[in-house]
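Appendix C. Worked example: GTR9 protein
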Amino acid sequence: MWNVLLSFSGLVALIQLVFLPFFPESPPYLLLQKGNKAGCLKAMKQLWGEGNYQTELDDMMKEKAVTKGTKIMSVLEVLKEPSVYPQLSIMLLLLLGLQLCGLSATANLHESIIPYVSLGVALSEFISVIFCSSIIDRFGRRILLWGGFLLMALILVLLEISLLL
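Step 2, the predicted output written as structure tokens:
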């Protein structure tokens, strides 16, 4: 019944894909990244209801003023920055924990190819972390979420169909 359990994550992705268009963009993203004050106010009203959000707007504008002179770093520049080493080491430990959990051994694979499968999974996770972190500012979170959920749902549907055939 592992294929049913695997399909469950596809169902969750499909539900998220259906409901994602009804949620607004993040108000700080709209104001700070896009410069859309009207869209920011509209998103605040949709998320928090009617009210006066001038203090929140002022706080976001102060944040924008503080970060205005800040240079946006590339992925390689972030990897060279010593102040982010603790966060990177935690992320690395999580990835290593996933590799050592025994998922490849429970997939009914031949023992001789399990190290290669583990290495392939680790490399694909590493590449996806680098790729996603470098494109998230360019496309925005909403489009990446839509694409990710759609791709996940599509792949899991194809996997389920191939298992049934």
